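Hey,
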Amino acid sequence: EVDKVLASTGDRQVALMGNSRGGNAIRGYVMNGGAAKVSHAILGGTPNHGVFANPASRLTNEFNGAGPVLQALNNQGAPGVEITPGPKWMTVRSDRNDKFAQPDGEWIGAKGQATNISFDGPELKGATNVVIAGIDHRETSYSPQAFAAAWRFITGLEPATLEARAERDIV
């Protein structure tokens, strides 16, 4: 799809934004040869370190931070850097309200059990990490505040408005 967009626009790069698991798809694309085609990668609420991290249970589960999927994604850069070099990276997370970044397993059916994931689980070393207080998992990508953060990250400017407006003609 990236190649189709680049061919139709004549541009050299795209900006990609993904929510939750979609962020892992972006990370996989960039890691597996797409880095030169992506200028900016924005990940909202992506469980970059897992929903849980347990090397003794469900190790092949893509949401296990101790498993091979997330370990591979988190070890692409220099030591201490968790992003694939090339694009500019940004994560957006909640301060404490994302149900998939909780120290207690209540939201995943394991109340009282440690997930080994903290509220900052969606952050990545080497990325610009944005925290928006009080937002939930979906709002990390779909709220006006997340839109404003993404707009600033890509353009360096404040958005003209955060109000959703109907357009006369569909473009």
